[in-house]
Every structure is written in C-alpha cells, then in structure tokens.
Design a protein that fits this description.
4 strands, two-stranded antiparallel ribbon, 7 helices, mainly alpha, single chain
C-alpha cells in the first residue's frame, strides 16, 4: 500500500507542490482504507485489519511530511526558548522540585558558569528523590552525556537529536555558551503556529 501511495505522490508531485501531493495521496490511501473496511465488514473481517494499517500508515506519512515542511529552512534561534531556569551541580534536588512546581519546565540544563555540564530530567529527578530525598546534589542525578545544538542549525536537525536522546530538552549553545533550550513541546507549538499561519495564507 505504501508503494501505491508513493507512486501516486510522485505523479501528483509533477503537477503540484510536494507537501500538497502527499496530502492528496494520503487522502486517497485513507479512502481506500474506508473501502476495505466497508467490504471487510460484510465479506472478510481480515480486510478490517488491512484497512486499519492502511489508514494509520497514510496518516503518519502525511503528518511526517507536514512536520518536515513546517521545519524546513528554519534555524533553531527562531523557535528556541530563551527564558528558562538552570541548576548547578552542587544545588540540592529540592531546588529542582521548587522550579518544577513554580513553572512548566521539567528538564533543566546543569551549568557551571555559562558552560553546560549536564541535563537533569524529570525522570532522573524522581528516581533520585525516591532513593535519597531532596538533599542530594543535582550532580548525582544529572545526565553527563547529552546532545546540544547551535542556534544557526536547522530546527529539523534539533528535532532529530531530540528524538534520538533520552531527554526532552536540548541545550542551545553558541561558542560553548548556553543561550537557549529546545524541547519537544515547543517544537510542537512552533509547528502548530506555522501550520495556522500557512492555512491563513
């Protein structure tokens, strides 16, 4: 079924913009899925499972292309969060608890001066709190291995790194200095805003 969608998309892309061609091909794929589902309901229940997979595959393909189109050519600096909290390795974990309860941030860059030395995630914080309480230093729970991104890199690159790492926050550094963070949530918000602007146009 994905090969059929790919062929339809290639044919449509010769006549229109690629993202639009993908949306139309996905719509046709979902229409076929409805047909399979209707026939399967009366003839062969196995076709219902085929219809479900075709529908899900078409929807995922369309969403992926829309996401890539929304992020294409956009540098990280346009979407990064510039107002955020940091922690130092020597601060107690209770300080991270206070920061979480006071705002919406759940993962924190851990810095010494302006240099990022680790990431404290919500999950690591909760695990350490369960073991030793809030008096343990942040340095005992933070992740020492983490990815970063520069403000001039593309947002699509940042999204790939976020998906590959075990945390939901990516420090944005310029010449080694922390200047912002990128999270899965704010990338999602940026895509939603870009999509709304695109619909208006």
């Amino acid at each position: 079924r994905s090969a059929i969608r790919a062929t339809m998309r290639a044919m449509l892309a010769t006549q229109m913009e690629y993202t639009r061609a993908t949306q139309i091909a996905a719509g046709i794929g979902q229409g076929m899925a409805l047909l399979f589902g209707f026939v399967g309901f009366w003839v062969n229940p196995f076709l219902l499972f085929i219809a479900l997979f075709v529908w899900i595959g078409a929807a995922q393909e369309a969403s992926l292309v829309q996401m890539k189109a929304a992020l294409e050519g956009i540098p990280v600096r346009r979407a990064m969060i510039t107002e955020f909290s940091t922690l130092s390795p020597s601060e107690p974990l209770s300080r991270a608890v206070e920061q979480i309860l006071a705002g919406s941030q759940t993962d924190f860059p851990v810095v010494e001066g302006d240099v990022v030395v680790g990431i404290l995630t919500r999950q690591d914080l909760l695990s350490e709190l369960a073991r030793g309480g809030g008096d343990a230093p942040v340095g005992t729970a933070m992740q020492h291995e983490f990815a970063t991104v520069e403000p001039t890199e593309m947002l699509e690159t940042a999204l790939h790194r976020l998906q590959a790492c075990a945390c939901h926050t990516l420090p944005v550094v310029r010449q080694g200095e922390l200047v912002g963070i990128v999270t899965m949530d704010n990338v999602g918000e940026f895509i939603a805003i870009q999509s709304a602007i695109g619909r208006r146009r």
